[in-house]
Design a protein that fits this description.
Radius of gyration: 16 Å
Strand order of the largest sheet: 1-2-5-4-3
CATH class: Alpha Beta
CATH topology: Beta Polymerase, domain 2
Number of strands: 5
Order of helices and strands: HEEHEEEHHHH
Number of domains: 1
Helix content: 25-40%
Structural class: alpha+beta
Strand content: 15-25%
Number of helices: 6
Oligomer: single chain
Length: about 190
């Protein structure tokens, strides 16, 4: 599958909300937070037209509490590592979203939300990130893993800047009850795209 970057689409937040509502209904209070992450969550940023959704749970190791309820939504556990679980649509469904489940309070949770918020607040950083993504997509258009790896250095550089910004501004994760960009029912290798 080729890497294709699309211009920012103002419908992406609505697509996120639609999927987040379905996930929230399926998981209930097990989803401590449901957030729109990745490039589609940054207004104006070109991205692969796939919505990244991050769900924070109390115990990532207790997969039975969240994996089973996600299956009727057409999402299957595709990858497991120490810090997150990745769910993708079953093969018969269009690839419109990537779902990442992480431990609430983890570095994974924080880094992805910090990266998103920093890009939202710093258009020059978003432009720099896009330039790196565009170069990676040209060079590695047929290799998703290489595309992701090619973005690592720029992501880490931007994260360093974001960390300094978070210290200077006092940025922190909002309390669980305030997270989720208004998701109804939301209870009280790093790649953002």
């Amino acid at each position: 599958m080729k890497i294709l970057l699309a211009e920012y689409d103002s419908r992406w937040p609505d697509l996120f909300q639609r999927e987040a509502n379905r996930i929230s209904a399926a998981l209930g209070a097990r989803a401590l937070q449901i957030e729109h992450t990745g490039s589609t969550a940054v207004p104006g940023l070109a991205a692969k037209p796939v919505i990244d959704i991050q769900v924070s749970v109390a115990d990532i190791a207790d997969e039975a509490r969240y994996a089973g309820p996600l299956e009727p939504l057409g999402l299957q556990l595709s990858n497991r590592d120490d810090v997150h679980r990745y769910f993708s649509p079953i093969p018969e469904q269009p690839r419109e979203l990537h779902l990442h489940v992480c431990q609430a309070g983890s570095a994974w949770e924080r880094d992805h939300l910090l990266f998103r918020d920093y890009l939202r607040a710093h258009p020059a950083a978003a432009d720099r990130y896009f330039a790196g993504k565009r170069a990676a997509a040209v060079t590695w258009r047929d290799d998703r893993w290489a595309y992701t790896e090619a973005k690592t250095d720029i992501i880490l550089d931007i994260l360093d800047d974001a960390e300094a910004w978070s210290r200077a501004t006092g940025w922190a994760l909002p309390p669980a009850s305030a997270q989720g960009e208004g998701v109804a029912g939301a209870a009280a290798e790093f790649d953002p795209d």
